[in-house]
Amino acid sequence: VQLQASGGGLVQPGGSLRLSCAASGSALGFYNMGWYRQAPGKQRELVAAISTGGGSTRYADSVKGRFTISRDNPKYTMYLQMNNLKPEDTADYYCTAGTDYSRPNTYWGQGTQVTVSS
């Protein structure tokens, strides 16, 4: 599975961004998918995960109620809608795929940078 994330950028606090992850290779529907992020000097963390069919999702406590993960398997695409962004959301965001729903991190795309600043 090859993954490519896009949609990052600079946004003011309180603003919104939508990240996209385009997948190619094996059938996307076989894999759970996720978004990880890593800020400078901090550990990488799982932000959100979504099951193979999209029926189950999970979020880090820090983003619950603000971020929404979704996927469109026929279009081989996954999304992360990020609302009410905060400076602490600043990080490189990575889309991932794997067989373990709790840690879908077998395959990684390149990161897309999100900067939340006024």
- How many strand segments? 11
* Mean pLDDT figure: 95
Helices, by number, come to 0
String of helices and strands: EEEEEEEEEEE
Largest sheet: 7 strands, mixed
End-to-end gap: 37 Å
Secondary structure: elements and pairs:
Elements: E1 2-6, E2 9-11, E3 17-24, E4 32-38, E5 45-50, E6 57-59, E7 67-72, E8 77-82, E9 91-98, E10 107-108, E11 112-116
Parallel strand pairs: 2-11
Antiparallel strand pairs: 1-3, 3-8, 4-5, 4-9, 5-6, 7-8, 9-10, 9-11
Identify the notable features of this structure and list them briefly:
50% strand, single chain, globular, mainly beta, 11 strands, 118 residues, four-stranded antiparallel beta sheet
Structure commentary:
With 118 residues, the protein is mostly beta strands. Helix content is 0%, strand content 50%. It has strands at 2-6, 9-11, 17-24, 32-38, 45-50, 57-59, 67-72, 77-82, 91-98, 107-108, 112-116. Strands 2, 4, 5, 6, 9, 10 and 11 form a seven-stranded mixed sheet that branches. Strands 1-3-8-7 form a four-stranded antiparallel sheet, with no helix packed on it. The model has no long low-confidence stretch (mean pLDDT 95).
Short description:
This protein is mainly β and 118 residues long.
